[in-house]
Amino acid sequence: MNLCLHNPVTCADRSSSLSSALKTSNYKLGTSKFGFLKHRKKNHVVAVRSVSTSTVTTVKEETKRESQVYDAIVIGSGIGGLVAATQLAVKEAKVLVLEKYLIPGGSSGYYERDGYTFDVGSSVMFGFSDKGKLNLITQALKAVGREMEVIPDPTTVHFHLPNDLSVQVHREYDEFVNELISKFPHEKEGILGFYGICWKIFNSLNSLELKSLEEPIYLFGQFFQKPLECLALAYYLPQNAGDIARKYIKDPQLLSFIDAECFIVSTVNALQTPMINASMVLCDRHYGGINYPVGGVGGIARSLAGGLVDQGSEILYKANVKSIILDDGKAVGVRLADGREFFAKTIISNATRWDTFGKLLKGEKLPKEEENFQKVYVKAPSFLSIHMGVKAEVLPPDTDCHHFVLEDDWKNLEEPYGSIFLSIPTILDPSLAPDGRHILHIFTTSSIEDWEGLTPKEYEAKKEEVAAGIIQRLEKKLFPGLSSSITFKEVGTPRTHRRYLARDKGTYGPMPRGTPKGVLGMPFNTTAIDGLYCVGDSCFPGQGVIAVAFSGVMCAHRVAADIGLERKSKVLDAGLLGLLGWLRTLA
Ligand SMILES: NC(=O)c1ccc[n+]([C@@H]2O[C@H](COP(=O)([O-])OP(=O)(O)OC[C@H]3O[C@@H](n4cnc5c(N)ncnc54)[C@H](O)[C@@H]3O)[C@@H](O)[C@H]2O)c1
Ligand SMILES: CC(C)=CCC/C(C)=C/C=C/C(C)=C/C=C/C(C)=C/C=C/C=C(C)/C=C/C=C(C)/C=C/C=C(\C)CCC=C(C)C
């Protein structure tokens, strides 16, 4: 949900929608808290066929002179789209990013109100360290000459679970497992066994250069250099965390804890969470640690967008893509709601696969691959989100930054409104709120069906009622006096996510219908439509900022190979893409 969701007009006033204005504001940031560097600029021309007079101010003057075909058009500036765009731009590709909203970032955007800077999504950032090969956010920024100051989070998350089970996930792995073993001493070996497998997978991932798993020259190269690690990954690709946990752990409460560990990153239990994804997050939080960017999560997208422009590529805001233009079955361009058309050799959609095929290609027959994807995966629920400012004194000293609350019954873990996520980013970065105040960002799963068919008055009343219930639960469990300490409150619903992020039903990505075969069934970036690629959380490896960043890296590599900026072999491509397509049908 974006920040300006609730009042886009005031937001528009504050953040200019024009690309030129964005550049200005980026440079301003660059000299201040985001530490931007100055870069060369290349001259380039926007490909535009028809320019509506009402929107002419959003297009650079020279764009009217000439039509030119871009190397890639990226629909949407979520982290997935921006990483794909910047990775291509640094390979000298000319990229145009079209964003429907006023600022970049999508669900990793931000908004400002009454002196508070709120993160749209949650504030738990993986992949943001200076270590290893899996720090994909750090690497994506570095590729375009950006770096951000980060604050290490000493505790990834503090779990408050049924039967008064309280577990803090400390940054130091030994501290965390020792705490867990102290709660389940009879399961010491099981705990070490399960998390040990996670480390084996994580270390294998961390030994590889991460690029497109759909590009055979790279893939075979990695197999040649790191055969054991690649075989280990291939072995775990079709497996789920819950099955592996059950090989080591018997205690039902500890297995439920593993479910909660997986739920916070996949919104499903461990039996449905791919082992590769679980290992990635359960280890990175101790290896590189969770690190919060100074100034807020929104700075990541702003920095990437600024870096993209520095590389000579372009980003346009208020550019709502209505359809993808096909020519003889090949994706060649896009048409905006205002009638403008842009053309490129490749089109990359950061809209979800449901939106891409259901809306942007409406009227076209759904390709078999997408049919299969929709059979195996459903849309994950959306979130009810409460952004609050509170008086600082309501938080006890040493309160952790991130909390997960499930009070009485494990059965409620996956129920709508059953468990509560809470982030207090001002614990790490007080500059996000006025003096003497903290930010509480509370969210809980919620489906759009709950919020439809209401009059505006009923909708507002329901938001207040549901939010009040959630706040009371936190008041009872964690912070007595919370309700009366609120100085600011804004509630977003799945409708808000749908409206401002253009996500079908406000979904936060795919969720397996049944028990998946690990990540085997997840589509990568290519699609059945020539020239069309997808990126973001409805592609492998799924939900999460670091996950969509990886999807962006993969996508850029595959596109670069297809437009001649990287090596490729047509024969090997046909073989590997065929094999991957066949493997997906087994999921
Ligand atoms: N770790 C965290 O705490 C955290 C926080 C926030 C978000 N996230 C994750 O980020 C992921 C989403 O990232 P993403 O990159 O896939 O997508 P996204 O939803 O963040 O971005 C998509 C962007 O595309 C734009 N868009 C969609 N349709 C468009 C159209 N037709 N024309 C123009 N623009 C259009 C939207 O406005 C949005 O800016 C989620 O899975 C979520 O889990 C995680
Ligand atoms: C192809 C074949 C057959 C074979 C091959 C083999 C190989 C080589 C393989 C390889 C593979 C790879 C490389 C892979 C990779 C992967 C990755 C990187 C992954 C990643 C993932 C990630 C993820 C999933 C993440 C996620 C995250 C998230 C979601 C987060 C979230 C958070 C939140 C929500 C927060 C919470 C809050 C609170 C508690 C407050």
UniProtKB/TrEMBL annotation:
<keyword id="KW-0274">FAD</keyword>
<dbReference type="GO" id="GO:0031969">
    <property type="term" value="C:chloroplast membrane"/>
</dbReference>
<dbReference type="InterPro" id="IPR045892">
    <property type="entry name" value="CrtISO-like"/>
</dbReference>
<keyword id="KW-0520">NAD</keyword>
<keyword id="KW-0472">Membrane</keyword>
<keyword id="KW-0521">NADP</keyword>
<dbReference type="GO" id="GO:0016491">
    <property type="term" value="F:oxidoreductase activity"/>
</dbReference>
<dbReference type="InterPro" id="IPR014101">
    <property type="entry name" value="CrtISO"/>
</dbReference>
<keyword id="KW-0285">Flavoprotein</keyword>
<dbReference type="Pfam" id="PF01593">
    <property type="entry name" value="Amino_oxidase"/>
</dbReference>
<keyword id="KW-0125">Carotenoid biosynthesis</keyword>
<protein>
    <recommendedName>
        <fullName>prolycopene isomerase</fullName>
        <ecNumber>5.2.1.13</ecNumber>
    </recommendedName>
</protein>
<dbReference type="GO" id="GO:0046608">
    <property type="term" value="F:carotenoid isomerase activity"/>
</dbReference>
<keyword id="KW-0413">Isomerase</keyword>
<keyword id="KW-0809">Transit peptide</keyword>
<feature type="domain" description="Amine oxidase">
    <location>
        <begin position="79"/>
        <end position="559"/>
    </location>
</feature>
<dbReference type="InterPro" id="IPR002937">
    <property type="entry name" value="Amino_oxidase"/>
</dbReference>
<comment type="similarity">
    <text>Belongs to the carotenoid/retinoid oxidoreductase family. CrtISO subfamily.</text>
</comment>
<dbReference type="GO" id="GO:0016117">
    <property type="term" value="P:carotenoid biosynthetic process"/>
</dbReference>
<keyword id="KW-0934">Plastid</keyword>
<comment type="pathway">
    <text>Carotenoid biosynthesis; lycopene biosynthesis.</text>
</comment>
<dbReference type="InterPro" id="IPR036188">
    <property type="entry name" value="FAD/NAD-bd_sf"/>
</dbReference>
<keyword id="KW-0150">Chloroplast</keyword>
